[in-house]
Amino acid sequence: MDPLLPLLGAVLWTLGLVFVVAGHRTVLVLAGKQASNAFKSGEPHGPDWYRRVNRAHMNCVENVPLFAAVVLAGHVAETIADPFGTLAMVWFLARIGQTLAHVSSGSAMAVNVRFTFFVIQHVCLIGMCLLVLDGLL
Question: 35: helix, coil or strand?
């Protein structure tokens, strides 16, 4: 598994989420229901599902750069062994799982599922870092 594929997938996933947020805002503005400057950063606005999608998008924006740095470091260090690519794909699938859990609900169970996927992603990143370090040292 080429780890660059999950990296591109993560970028496309993040873009998909921003298009959902932007699409919702665009519909509201074009329908005359909101002014284009009504979406204040840091202030809750919109329905619950929209706020969860917006926050899930920000989670991607916060975490994809870490993943990108590790994947690119692995690529430069030629760490393309199966464990590295597999960990990259597991990270990506866990990223999708975390997003879907985040968007689906704010219930305690959804938060627990989301946190589980969060932990999986970070374990994968640590494993990937160790593989890169092993190849460099």
Answer: coil
